Amino acid sequence: MGARLSDRLAAIVDALPLEPGLRVLEIGGAPGAAAVEVARRVGETGHVLVIDRSPAGTAQVRRRATDLIDSGLLSVRCVAIEDFVLGPDEEPYDLAFAIRVGCLDGRHPRLGAAARRRIRDALHPYGRLLIDGGDPLQEIAV
Asked: How many Å from the N-terminal Cα to the C-terminal Cα in the chain?
């Protein structure tokens, strides 16, 4: 199921408000280490979708999480967040998180508004977006 998380990544995953049954969207999630642990924590009734703009990155996630993908607990899509839309029968997500994603952490502000709109459209009305940069996470408005 993958290697042990780094201390930094473990602290981030520990800070996420995870519980069994949640639907979680990880943005920019390659190579998949956090997603594997998040999937373990949301359990059989939850789901994790990892999106990443990199074909090589999404391939890494697929290799790392084959068993979780096969079981339906995790899925992977190659798409930039500013282009992401829910599929026709896809349920909204309860939580989204991103670690070192430039359009959300201020490095690429031109893309930030579009990314936040896409995230808002993918979340339930009560859904939350958490990104790194706090202690260790911060919530940002979508």
From this structure: 32
Task: Give the Cβ contact number of residue 120 at 10 Å.
Answer: 14
Residue 20 in tokens = 């069994």
Query: What's the pTM?
Result: 0.95
Question: Closest Cα partner for 68 from 83, 49, 53?
Answer: 49
The closest of 123, 52, 120 to 91, measured between CA atoms, is 123
Give, for all 142 residues of the chain, the pLDDT tens digit.
Answer: 455 899 999 999 999 999 999 999 999 999 999 999 999 999 999 999 999 999 999 999 999 999 999 999 999 999 999 999 999 999 999 999 999 999 998 888 889 999 999 999 999 999 999 999 899 999 999 9
Q: Where are the alpha helices (DSSP H) in the chain?
A: 7-15, 33-42, 55-64, 66-71, 102-105, 109-122
Angle formed by the axes of helices 33-42 and 7-15, to 10°? 40
Centroid of chain to Cα 79: 12
Asked whether 101 and 131 are in contact (CB, 8 A), the reply is yes
